[in-house]
Amino acid sequence: METLHINKPFTFPNGSTIRNRLVKSAMAEGYMEPDCLPGDGLITNYSRWAQGGWGMLITGNYMIDPKGMSFPGMLLVNNDTVSREVQVAKLKAFASAARANGTKIIAQLCHPGRAGILIPGRGGKNIAPSPIRISFGDGFIARALAALMTGTPREMTREDIDNIVGKFASAARLMAEAGFDGVELHGAHGYLISQFLSAESNQRTDEYGGSALDRTKFAVQVIEAVKAAVPDGFIVGIKLNSVDYQTDRSAQATKEGHVMNTEKQLQECVDQFGAIAAAGVDYVNVSGGTMENPRMANGPPKSTRTKAREAFFLSFAESFRASFPDVPLMVTGGFHSRTGMEEAVAGGGTDLVGIGRGACACPSLPSDVVLNPEVADSEARVVLKKYPVPWWLSWGPQMVGVGWENNFYSAMIRALGTEQEGKKN
A Gene Ontology molecular-function term (predicted)? Predict the structure, then answer.
C-alpha cells in the first residue's frame, strides 16, 4: 500500500517532529488523585495510548488556577496545597509513560473563566472579561442551573489579567520541567481565552475589548508569556473555536433563533487567527462549541457535503488555510474512517487529525486499524457505541445531555486504566 499522508511524519515550526498525523485529542477525563494530579490509572491509560501508534497525545484539561475549575475532578497544576517537587515528580512519571514508543505528549492548559463550576471552599466568584453570566437557556431550570453552577462572574481587573497570564506561563514551565513535549492552550469551548475572543462575552471598553483584534490581546499575551517560559523546541499550540458553527459561505448559521452574519464572523475570526499566528504558535487546533451551545460533542448541523467529508470543522479550517497557508492546522471532531482522514490531509484542509472518543473505544486505533495495511479501507473505521440521553434529560439544557454522553467516555477512560492495572497485579 502506498504510504498514506496520515502516516507521514510532520514537523512543527519549532523543529519538533511527530511520526504520523494522528493525534489523540483532549477529552474530559475526570480521573485524578485527591491531590488533583495523575495517578497510576491515568498513567496506565496514556502508556496504552503511547503503544497504540499515535503521533501525538493531548491530555485532558489541566486547570492552571485552583480558584478556577471547570468541573470537580479536573487535573490541576499551580496547586498551592501540593509542593512543586511533588507536582513535578508525579507529572514526570506521567510524561515518561506517555512518551514511550516515540509518542509526543502535550498538556492542555485551561482556565474556565465564567464557565467554572462554583466549588465550596475554592473562594469567591468566577472571573471573566465582563460580568456576563453564562446562559444555559431561557427556561426556569436552565436559568437556575446557571445561577447555581457558575453565578455571575466578576470582571477581571488588569491585575487579574496579569496574574492569569503568569499562571499559564508557570504551568507551561512546570510541564517542560516534567518532560512534556509541549502544551495546548485551551482557547475554545467557551473557556477564558475564548471568552476574551468573543464579542458576546467580552464587552470591555479598555484595550482588551472592542474590535476583533483588541479582543485577541489577552490570547496573544498568554502565548508570548508561555513561549518565554519554555525552552526552544517545546511545542506551543492553541485550540480555537470555529465560527459557530457551519461555515459554508452559501448558508447562514443560526444560534438561539438569531441569524448571524457568517461572513462578518468569519472575517473577524480570520483577523484574530492572524494575530494569534503572528504570536508564534506551532499549531492551531480547530474545534467548536461552548457550554451554552456544546457542538464540540456532536458537531454543527451537517450539510450533505459536510457529511461526506466527515470532519465537523474542516470547511472552517480551509478558510484559515487560504489566508495563512504556513500555519499548521489540526481539526478535531467527526472523523470516522481512514478514507475521510486521508482525504482531509491529502487535500490540504488540515495537517493533523484529532480523534477523541475513538481513542477511548480503541486505544490502538492507529496501529491496529487506520495505519494497518492488512485492514481494508472499507473496514478501517472508528466504531462508537451510542449512549442515548434519557428522555427526561431532554427537558433540560443541551449541555446536560452532552454531559451525560461525556460521563460515559470518562467512565470508559477510567475502566481502561483499571483493567490494565488489574492485569499487572
Answer: oxidoreductase activity
pLDDT digits (tens, 9 = 90+) for 40-97: 999 999 999 999 999 999 999 999 999 988 877 789 999 999 999 999 999 999 999 9
pTM above 0.90, yes or no: no
How many Å apart are CA 23 and CA 84, to the nearest integer?
Answer: 29
Q: Where are the beta strands (DSSP E) in 138-295?
A: 154-155, 182-187, 235-241, 254-255, 258-259, 283-287
Q: Point out the least confidently predicted range of 3-12, 89-98, 134-143, 228-237.
A: 134-143
Instruction: From 224, 120, 109, 203, select the one nearest 155 (Cα to Cα).
Output: 203
Task: Please state, in angstroms and rounded to a whole number, the distance separating the CA atoms of residues 358 and 379.
Answer: 14
Q: Give the CA angle between residues 320, 324, 326 to the nearest 5°.
A: 125
pLDDT in tens, 346-356: 999 999 999 99
3-state DSSP call for residue 399?
helix
> Exposed, middle or buried: residue 193 (CB in 10 Å: 0-12, 13-18, 19+)?
buried
Q: Decide: residue 165, CB within 10 A, 0-12 exposed, 13-18 middle, 19+ buried.
A: middle
Closest CA to 129 of 211, 199, 222: 199
- Contacting residues for 349 by C-beta, under 8 A, at least 6 apart: 311, 314, 317, 318, 321, 329, 331
Distance of CA 67 to the CA centre of its chain: 20
Q: Which residues contact 236 (CB under 8 A, 6 or more apart)?
A: 14, 172, 182, 183, 185, 223, 226, 227, 230, 280, 281, 282
